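Allow me, if you will, to draw on your knowledge of protein folds for a short while. I have a record of one protein: its chain in single-letter code and its fold written as C-alpha cells. I should value your view on which stretches of the chain appear to form regular backbone elements. Thank you for your consideration; the sequence and its C-alpha cells are set out here:
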Amino acid sequence: MSFCCGASMIGTKGTLKHIRTHIHNVPILFCPVCHRVDIHYLIENEYEILAEYAHGDGADEVDFQDYVEQQGKALLENCVNHENEDPMDVALNQIDMALDLLSFAKQIGDEEWQRELKNRLVILSGRRKKLKQRRTSV
C-alpha cells in the first residue's frame, strides 16, 4: 500500500511524459488530495528502461502495455482504492482511513501528522460535498 498526505493513494493507469515521449497506460499511484503521482513500485525499472529506449528511438508516443508484461492484478492489489470505483465510495473510504489515522496520531501525540490529516479531511470533505451535489443535480 502506498501512502501520501497521511493516507492511501489510488491505483490507476496514466500517461507520463519522459522528455518528449508520452508513455500511455503506465500503472501509477495517484493522491486524491495533493495530486502527487508515483510510478507503481513493481514496474519502476521497466518504465525507466522503456522510457530511455523510446526517447532514444525518437518515439513521440508508446503504449506501456505493448512492451512490458505486467503481473496482472498484483500491480494494484496493494491499493486500497482504484480509479474504476465509484468516486463517492473512494471519497468515503479515504475519509474513514484519515479519521482512523487521526485517532492514532492523537494517541501518539504527533501534532504535525494531526494537522496534515485534518487538512486532508477538509479537502476530502469538500470533494464528498461536490460529488453529493452532482448526484442531486442529475
Remarks:
- The chain has two domains: 3-80, 87-137.
- The radius of gyration is 18 Å.
- Residues 111-137 form the longest helix (27 residues).
- Residues 9 and 35 are 9 Å apart (CA to CA).
